[in-house]
Structures
1.
Amino acid sequence: MASSIRVRAVENNGVTSLKALVRHPMDSGFVKDSAGNVIPAHFIKVLTISHNGKNVFVANWGPAVSKDPFLECRFKGAKKGDELTISWIDNEGASDSTTATIA
Amino acid sequence: MTDQRRRGFLKGMLGVGVAGFALGSGIVPLRVEAATAPDASEWPEKAFKTPGVDETIAELYGMEATESDQITMDLPTIAQNGAVVPVSVETTLPNVTGIALLVAKNPNALAAYFDVPEGTLPFVSNRLKMAETTDVVAVVISDGKAYKATQNVKVTVGGCGG
């Protein structure tokens, strides 16, 4: 199964820049479908980025984050070829995880 | 972000996806079992359910935020589509431990907040939904104190209409 997470991480002058794109509906719970029924909230709550077992970035998201959320962050202390783990969990308990190598 | 850069990024993403699949196809099932899902129990349910900017900051961090000109926000002044508004925050404040993004006129103001551990630069870029023309507030926790910056976004099509 293809992962729901796409990541690109690039190291430059000691700073790793990471861009991640997650496929997720991020329903806010305020939108109604064509029949007038409220679409229940369904969104990613927590997304973590870890390097060597240590979290380098933790995003706590609410339903106001856009569909198919995009995140960019920068951190120090990693080098080219290092592996990063990106994981998320949503409000229904579903989760996904992927690894990426820093280029 | 210009359209050109965005294209490049998306193309790059495709490449990463394909390479990742080729490399990992054999070991992926093991990895999935070994990987632990993040813990959502710390997720601040109450802060995400609070309307109003100041109330949310108080709920989330237990203090009031003071205005700071050392926080740089990058977001459009006019957003054609309120469902996808790119927001970037960067700050020169020292010892940053957290960044939060709030949308003043959304039903619940808090959109996202980020833990920034040591070694991570105080920068984040994210895309947010906003229902109508509104102020966007960035809160930065630096040396244990809260600072904020505000910028207005004109939304021509709301993000809650589906």
Note: Residues 19-34 of chain B have pLDDT under 50 and may be disordered.
2.
Amino acid sequence: MAEEVVLMKGNEAIAHAAIRIGVDGYFGYPITPQSEVLETLAEQKPWETTGMVVLQAESELAAINMVYGGAGSGKMVMTSSSSPGVSLKQEGISYIAGAELPCLIVNVMRGGPGLGTIQPSQADYFQTTKGGGHGDYHLIALAPASVQEMADFVELGFQLAFKYRNPAIILADGVIGQMMEKVVLPTPRPRRTDEEVIAQCPWAATGCKGRKPNVITSLELDPAIMEQRNIHLQQKYAEIEANEVRYEEINCDDAEYLIVAFGSCARIAQKAMEHAREEGIKVGLFRPITLWPFPTKALRERASNIKGILTVELNSGQMVEDVRLAVECRIPVEHFGRLGGIVPDPDEVIEAIKTKLIK
Amino acid sequence: MKQEIIIAGFGGQGVLSMGKILAYSGLMEGKEVTWMPAYGPEQRGGTANVTVIVSDERISSPILSKYDVAIILNQPSLAKFENKVKPRGILIYDGYGIINPPTRKDIHIFRIDAMDEANERKMAKTFNMIVLGGLLKICPVVSIESVVKALKKTLPERHHHLIPMNEEAIKIGMDIIKPIE
């Protein structure tokens, strides 16, 4: 059977993909620009078909703690929100990471700080990749640049989350959430049976018939044990860093200058790159797909033949720090960004290449 | 071939849905498409615009600096987008409420009095399809057959009886659009 191609918003693709890959539960609270995730789920009524639970919680705090509970029982559970709502969830996210549970979080970023604006932003890069909540933990952070990737990363996010027993996050922004593009959705499959969940998740609280109870907690009052737990987490993060780095390179082989951008900015930068090349400026595009683990090694290798790097971000300069660390400041790394919900057009990016890099 | 189109007007004029039908029609022809709205409270009456790209190849940026075609449905949108049409590009505007018409000499300008026509014929709800007809006459981005297919695909079955009326609106638009010297 030929794959069905449909046209939909990034937010809608998240919802459809979640139903199709057999997600057990979604817990959320509406906020622009991601409300279509919950709206689409409500419209599709998956509780009548796959048995998936869809619940509008009374708050973001409730939603993330419902995710904590569902994840503790080995279920595939997720939540989505936008920046201010994700800030509210940070305590729960830290607990879930500390208890080593798999789940998927979606952040369709809007401009901040505070309530800010409903327009697109990438200013939650630090929050996502450097912590957000308290303690030494990491989220596996995926940055989609198309509606297709919004759909694909739901499945990828859950795969990685269960493989490493760690929360994964899709870090999108208002552009990717609101725009419509062609998308091929994953092939529908049923949710796992209770027996399959028990077999796959021996650590989960699934009712301890015939075995010792599993305890799901992030609390450990004995610092000696807590240190061991942290060391174990760090070993796990090192393994993720070694195995799960993802990125895309376009026109990098002959490039003299490099743009590094993720998500919607990578799309805008790609157009700028095309125009710059028409003018004879050899620009390449390096797009981190995993923001954590960051493609440090690949970028360092790529930078060896490059005269300078420009990061393009919808923030005042966040990922640029990771880029500078990656290239160990051997070449100039400049930043171009628009703030507070303004999205630059490709011409502004070309101008930034000329004024900040070539000079 | 690639067409980069901006459609801009007031919220409630059907700007976003016209873009959606155009994008869906492109999809029916197997083309690459993006539909990027200026989203927000516009649906409740502010200015609304949507960028639609229909292309044979993979589309990079859904956000653009310049457009091949601008479809302008009110004065504030004309002020905002007239200068963003590429040289030798196309600007189509509805004359209703336009006090200061476009002045550029390096682009092709067309006028379509779709608002008046829709009101006279008591077809106010097909206003945006009249405009779409005008666009397809000047710049056949997609075929009318594909538009009809797209309508069938996107409208719930209970509204399918309205498709002939929309087809008629497209044909009216094709008839009434005229070039401005």
Note: The first strand of chain B starts at residue 2 and ends at 10.
3.
Amino acid sequence: MLYVLSTVFVAYLSFRQILDPATWNALFWIILLFASVNAAARSFMQESSSRHLYYYMLVSPQELILSKIIYNMLMVLILAFIEYFFYTLFIGNIIQDHFSFVIALLLGSMGFSSLLTMISAIASKAGQNPALVAILAFPVLIPLLISSIRFSRDAIFGLALSANTGGVVILLALNVIVVMLAYILFPYIWRN
Amino acid sequence: MKKYWWKVLTCTLLFYTVAMAFTGDVPALDILHETIRNLYFHVPMWFGMIVLLTVSLVYSTKYLGSNKIREDRVAVEAANVGVLYGILGLITGSLWAKNTWGAWWVNDAKLNGAAVTMLAYLAYFILRNSFPESQRKAQISAVYNIFAYVLMLVFILILPRLTDSLHPGNGGNPGFNTYDLDNRMRLVFYPAVAGWILLGVWLLELRVRIARLRDEDKETRA
């Protein structure tokens, strides 16, 4: 939270007002990207291996990954809305279709969080190297990031949601793919 | 001879490709001019890369089912050769872009997709290097491989189709098939694709054999 707030403030100090939609949008998503990497990366890293053993005995891996994903989704969503609020406060709000933008935020941050949860699980098994999460996550995050940026750009220009179903479908499909992959593959990571 | 026939075939196809690429007749077209000959090198690289990365995916999945280190070896070597093909594809594409679009790199969905794919597989190699023990390394990196492959597929096959691209066949540009890949070129292009893919499989086979010998050597010493 403080991370988002201070980044937005730094952006405000360096840019003052942003009226150019492309820059506004890109900066918004980049801040969200780094904030969620920081937040979600911790989901497996911070826990000790004895706690993992405890989880291992208590719940099935599928339940564990789904609950972690849901928790991270909520966290990143809250981050996204906090960012939205402060961004509007400091840098200005140039969005014409707010409803579409909120949908973009919702789907984008859900995708970010589920992907990062999975990557964090992979990285935590590879030792405690914090840079590894970023290295592993960025290439696979880019499809999601680009489709979210494109979709929210349309929202800024005021394209109604009904005219932009393609963007919604892509984002939804990416979300579903990521969650399904996580659900299928997580047990293999968890076993050892 | 039975075992070698496909290697002979690879050599024949590639000699034929190279010979025809530099001396064969090509249609005279605006902008492309003689650079159209690059079609026999650039496009098969991507076909080869996708085939090899798919092999890598299949063996990663098989590894998760069986836990045999042999399968992991194929997966990682296929990714290696696939990345080599990807880099060659980027180089040939870059040369082609310089001569037709006027820049070494343009902001195009397919180019960015290719670059991201390279990054994802380099990340895969970094992930592998951070494990000391081979069973765990194989397992975790197999999971990442499957993850990366699926997202790569989305990125290079689906997203460019939805946006404008300078590549033929996207965003209102006509595909090669419609007018400029005439029958003479087709006679070279299909053998070229087959030849380069077979060469990739050959490289893969050699690399797997080297890796196996190295592992066996390590075991006998230990």
Note: Residues 61-90 of chain A form the longest helix (30 residues).
